[in-house]
Automatic annotation (TrEMBL):
Taxonomy of the source species: Bacteria, Pseudomonadati, Bacteroidota, Flavobacteriia, Flavobacteriales
Gene that encodes the chain: efp
PROSITE patterns on file: EFP (PS01275)
Sequence similarity: Belongs to the elongation factor P family.
Organism whose genome encodes this protein: Psychroflexus torquis (strain ATCC 700755 / CIP 106069 / ACAM 623)
Purpose: Involved in peptide bond synthesis. Stimulates efficient translation and peptide-bond synthesis on native or reconstituted 70S ribosomes in vitro. Probably functions indirectly by altering the affinity of the ribosome for aminoacyl-tRNA, thus increasing their reactivity as acceptors for peptidyl transferase.
Name the UniProt record assigns to this protein: Elongation factor P
Domain Translation elongation factor P/YeiP central stretches: 67-122
Residue ranges constituting the Elongation factor P C-terminal domain according to the UniProt record: 130-185
Length: 188
């Protein structure tokens, strides 16, 4: 058993008959009253995010997990197929297990959390950013850059991201996977 002082991002816990992954946490010590930990928990089975507050010293049941590197192979319906990079075994996961499936392109290496009790995959951690090619966007209008103007662009995976006006079709852009936002243009 762990306590609230052990809470950290990425920790998997058993709570309300489900397994949740801590995505955000904040230790709060108010001037009056006892300390507590405010958390944002994401269910690894349904993908639902809940807010929860644990009182200081509260016992939590930690789920032991292992992380393994897997390469994304292909998507078929609502299933995503991955191959272990060391022993080449393949697994398939439901789309709900992925945070940003629309940013995942074939060949991308991700980290998959696996429950050590039953060897079932829990969730997929994407790399912090991915580089994708713009397949469709409106041409930028010259001289329309007085403000931070953006336009919609469709990427090679089908994801839509707002990009600056100077981005054209065929450009490669770096996208932040946590928020799904444009980061920078990549020069070749």
């Amino acid at each position: 058993m762990a306590t609230t002082s052990d809470i950290r991002n990425g920790l998997c816990i058993r709570y309300n008959h489900d397994i949740f992954k801590v995505t955000e946490f904040l230790h709060v010590k108010p001037g009056k009253g006892p300390a507590f930990v405010r958390t944002k928990l994401k269910s690894v089975t349904t993908g639902k995010v809940i807010d929860n507050t644990f009182s200081s010293g509260h016992k939590i049941e930690e789920v032991r997990v292992e992380t393994h590197k897997y390469q994304f192979l292909y998507k078929e319906g609502e299933f995503y197929y991955f191959m272990h990079v060391e022993d080449f075994t393949q697994i398939r996961l439901l789309q709900a297990a992925l945070d940003m499936p629309n940013l995942l392109k074939e060949g991308e290496v991700v980290t998959i959390l696996i429950n050590t009790e039953d060897n079932l995959p829990l969730s997929v951690d994407m790399p912090p950013h991915v580089v994708l090619e713009v397949t469709q966007t409106e041409p930028g209008v010259k001289g329309n850059t007085a403000t931070n103007a953006t336009k919609s662009a469709t990427l090679e995976t089908g994801a839509e991201v707002n990009v600056p006006l100077f981005i054209n079709e065929g450009d490669k852009v770096k996208v932040e996977t946590e928020k799904g936002t444009y980061k920078e243009r990549i020069k070749e």
